[in-house]
Amino acid sequence: MTETLIWTVCLLLATLVPTTIQHKMKRELGKGDSTEWQQLWYSNFEEYQRLTEPSFDNNTVSNVTVQLGGTAFLHCRVRNLGERTISWVRRRDWHILTSGVFTYTNDERFQVLHAEGTDDWTLQIKYLQKRDNGTYECQVSTGTGIMSHFVNLHIVVPEAYIVGSGEHHIDLGSVISLVCMIDKSPQPPQYVFWFHNNRMINYDTARGGISVETESGPKTQSKLTIRDAHDVDSGNYTCSASNTEPASVFVFVSEGDKMAAISRRKSSSGSDVIANFLWFIVVPLVTLAAR
Ligand SMILES: *[C@@H]1O[C@H](CO)[C@@H](O)[C@H](O)[C@H]1NC(C)=O
Ligand SMILES: *[C@@H]1O[C@H](CO)[C@@H](O)[C@H](O)[C@H]1NC(C)=O
Ligand SMILES: *[C@@H]1O[C@H](CO)[C@@H](O)[C@H](O)[C@H]1NC(C)=O
Ligand SMILES: *[C@@H]1O[C@H](CO)[C@@H](O)[C@H](O)[C@H]1NC(C)=O
């Protein structure tokens, strides 16, 4: 009789204790952390993984921006893939590019990168062309349907432009300062060369007074400075970056602005009129008298 009672109590304890522990754990983890909770529920993580479907958020979208000619890496991470295969599909024409580690296109620029035992199935596209711009879908078939991850691949074409209008008017003796911007270039250009007409002047030592400062970055900026501008410095200035079409402006070096400044002064205040009177009438008279 007592033996039976002890056994009953033991059995009750055996069923109650784990349940209370589990309840306690559940409370501590909070309602939102169901995954974490499930991970603890199963005695070990491997078992938990084995029992679940491929882990993949359906219909997620990510953006990748790469410049023309570069290499794109479109990432897709799937846990618990098991025996299933990952396919990459180009949405433009529904072409299946890769399935598992195999490539189903003659275009050798496409390749799937996957290291055995990892969760990454990366689609690599080399020597990017404008027509590669578009949406790519990484998909996996599961018991409940197809799950997809979308990647929008944006192809950008780097552009160079020189700040200001197409014509720059510079006073004789002043500083020519031109700024070239390299836009839409996630990878900075390898070089930016400046040309005066057809001559490269980055390292010009013959003339002197020329400096080029290039700050590389997502928006590369190159500044050309030429001190003490002369007539011969007039002409076509071109900024040529490694990854863009060149950009050019025309520079006119002239005394034009000095003359304009004088005529502006003539017609302004009374003291200026006196100053000009002294300059144009008195000074020549004094000079004549001194002879
Ligand atoms: C992707 O780009 C679109 C617009 O082109 C934007 O609405 C969306 O939020 C971006 N997604 C991510 C994950 O950055
Ligand atoms: C993923 O979403 C698509 C579109 O909403 C749906 O057709 C498909 O059944 C979903 N897959 C799963 C496994 O839920
Ligand atoms: C593809 O190019 C068009 C036009 O240039 C642009 O509007 C679109 O957003 C691009 N799509 C992607 C996914 O980059
Ligand atoms: C400057 O020279 C380049 C190449 O020499 C030429 O393509 C461009 O049209 C010229 N620009 C101007 C403003 O003359």
From TrEMBL:
Q: Per the database entry, which stretches of residues form a coiled coil?
A: none
Q: Name one GO biological process term.
A: synapse organization
Gene Ontology, cellular component aspect = neuron projection membrane
The record's SMART domains line, in alphabetical order, gives: IG, IGc2
Q: Which residues form the signal peptide?
A: 1-22
SUPFAM superfamilies assigned to the protein according to its UniProt record, in alphabetical order: Immunoglobulin
Q: Which organism is it from?
A: Laodelphax striatellus
The cross-references to InterPro entries, in alphabetical order and at most eight, read:
Ig-like_dom, Ig-like_dom_sf, Ig-like_fold, Ig_sub, Ig_sub2, Ig_V-set, Zig-8
* Entry protein name: Ig-like domain-containing protein
Entry's transmembrane regions? 273-290
Q: Does the keyword Cell membrane apply?
A: no
Cite a single Pfam family from the UniProt record: V-set
